[in-house]
Amino acid sequence: MIPHFCKVNNINVHNLILQSGALLLKSKKVMLDTLFPIFCLRCHKEGSWICDSCLEKIPINTEQLCPLCEKTETPNGRTCFACRKKTSLDGLIVAASYRDKLISHTIHLFKYSFVADLHKPLGGILVKALLKTDAELPNFIIPVPLHPRRLRWRGFNQAELLSQHLAKNILPANELAIKTDTLERLRYTGVQKSIKNIRERKSNIAGAFKVKNKQDVFGKTILLIDDVATTGATLFECAKTLKQAGARQVFALVVARQELNTRRGKQR
């Protein structure tokens, strides 16, 4: 359930003021939490964006499908045998269902209302999902990069914030490495969400990425992080670019997989 109007306004005011400057951020946050309290997006309990109780109730996917055909159930979301020659992505773990209203609403606020703090509960969902698998831990994590124009507009890269939370919490005693300057987005492609045709999405993102230093990825197992996958075109293109630069294996982890109107997802 989406909070009532005044609480949504509090979200926007709270976040805009937090982004006005980095100085005295902790003091500002205390003041803002007092003047513009935040409420759980599901139960409306005051104090956090998603309270611990509601966070625990979000179902984590226990079954994963091949990221390309989305028909074959595979261990840890590995690309099925029939699809291996059709994509460079070795597997995709989808943490939760986009049909869960709390998940879809939280992701929307995270990306389009610029509520950066939402990376914590969403990142926690990624941690829980990865711990439910026996997937090989990567040499390092690469957040899907934003074009500088998109980064200036949003103020942060949502994939990078999710990566930071995952890296710090998956192995608390041994933080995973994150590389944010290895994969570069070369051109502004616009918003994939606005393109409904699958072929047009692939064409739109083709050739959009570049590996700055091939030695960084050569022979490595890499985990790509993003908030949402739809057709998977962005992740497939990132994986292709990394494999062409010499990466050994490329997997991906997302909070949820959204459906186009023309396709029906089967993630459970």
Describe the structure.
The protein is 37% helix and 13% strand. The strands form 2 sheets. The protein has a 4-stranded parallel sheet. The model is unreliable at 1-7 and 262-266 (pLDDT under 50). α10 (233-244) links the parallel β5 and β6. The protein is of the alpha/beta class and 268 residues long. The longest helix has 14 residues, at 5-18. The two termini are 21 Å apart.
Task: Estimate the helix proportion, in percent.
Answer: 25-40%
- Report the major sheet: 4 strands, parallel
H/E order of the elements? HHHEHHEHHEHEHEHE
User: Rg to the nearest angstrom?
Assistant: 18 Å
Query: What integer is the average pLDDT?
Result: 87
Structure summarized in a few sentences:
The protein is α/β, with parallel strands linked by helices. Helices cover 37% and strands 13% of the residues.
Topology:
Layout: H1 5-18, H2 25-35, H3 52-56, E1 91-97, H4 101-112, H5 119-131, E2 140-143, H6 148-154, H7 158-169, E3 183-185, H8 198-205, E4 209-211, H9 214-217, E5 221-229, H10 233-244, E6 249-257
Parallel strand pairs: 1-6, 2-5, 5-6
Antiparallel strand pairs: 3-4
Helix pairs in contact: 5-7
